[in-house]
Amino acid sequence: MNSDISRVLERLESQSQLEKARKVDVPPEDRMLAITKETGELLNMILRLKNAKNVLEIGMSTGYSTIWCAEAILEEQGQIITIEQNPSKITRAEKNFEDAKVANNITIKQGTARDILSKLNQEYNEFFDFVLIDADKENVIEYFDSVLPMVSAGGVIITDNMLYPEKYKEHMAKYAKHIKKYQNVRTITSPIGNGEEITIKL
Ligand SMILES: C[S@@+](CC[C@H](N)C(=O)[O-])C[C@H]1O[C@@H](n2cnc3c(N)ncnc32)[C@H](O)[C@@H]1O
Questions:
Q1: Torsion angle of alpha carbons 164, 90, 102, 118, nearest 10°?
Q2: Structure confidence at residue 132 (pLDDT)
Q3: What residue's CA is closest to ligand 1, atom 7?
Q4: Taking the mean position of all CA atoms in its chain, how far away is CA 130?
Q5: What is the pLDDT of residues 6-52, one digit of tens each?
Q6: In this structure, which CATH number among 3.30.70.1560, 3.40.50.150, 3.90.180.10, 3.30.390.10 belongs to the domain 3-201?
Q7: Distance from C-alpha of 199 to C-alpha of 55, rounded to nearest angstrom
Q8: What is the pLDDT of residue 48?
């Protein structure tokens, strides 16, 4: 991994740990709520195994997970479309992408996931080979249903927070059950990080 990227990832990991331990005073809406480092490594590994080029992320925050994905697709000259509604997080993410020198591989779509996904649906069909779903958990079933037609055969969808925080567990179990209704996917819940649903479109 090049030093520009590792430096930014390490800085964001320190910030995330401070926030999680409540050692810094950050208003709830500005907290990173980032995936764990282990989850970042998992995403990066899957993207590399797939030689992925076209990535969609729902819930960018300050870009920690986006940078893990970008690192894996740089050599393939891949592109990431990422969705975020909070303007101040977008400003922070843009700075992080510049510092990591991955900004050219990332397009940020500002707005609500519902609105942006409905626009992307008109443009893309069986296009993305990798999707990360990590925005609000309330609408996760809707996001999955909206994303699935845009994923290519063999494409992977990862969903964060399947097991933690505890308050989402029951809802995310319903989500896993919902996914299993589709005949054209295989899915498993992995205990890595905060619990990752790993779904493949057949
Ligand atoms: C868990 S955080 C994402 C963390 C990020 N994936 C990472 O690992 O660094 C969820 C993000 O989704 C954004 N978000 C929540 N609901 C959203 C919605 N309906 N539309 C767009 N963004 C949303 C929040 O502002 C927040 O930054």
A1: 80
A2: 98
A3: 34
A4: 9
A5: 999 999 999 999 998 989 988 889 999 999 999 999 999 999 999 99
A6: 3.40.50.150
A7: 15
A8: 97
Which amino acids bring their CB within 6 angstroms of ligand 1?
A: 32-35, 59-61, 64-65, 83-86, 89, 112-113, 134-136
Cα of 162 vs centre of ligand 1, distance in Å, is 15
CA 66 to centroid of ligand 1, rounded, Å: 12
Residue from 11, 16, 84, 160 to probe ligand 1 pocket by mutation (most atoms less than 8 Å from CB): 84
Q: What is the pLDDT of residue 78?
A: 97
Range list of H helices, the chain? 3-20, 37-50, 64-73, 87-100, 113-123, 140-147, 169-179
What's the pLDDT score for residue 50? 96
The whole-model pTM stands at 0.97
| Dmax (CA) of the chain | 46
Q: Where are the domains of the chain?
A: 3-201
Asked, as a colleague might, if the bond just before 165 is cis with ω within 30 of 0, I would say: yes
Tens-digit pLDDT profile for residues 78-117: 999 999 999 999 999 999 999 999 999 999 999 999 999 9
pLDDT (0 to 100) of residue 73? 97
CA–CA dist 152, 13 (Å, integer): 32
Nearest atom of ligand 1 to the alpha carbon of 62:
9
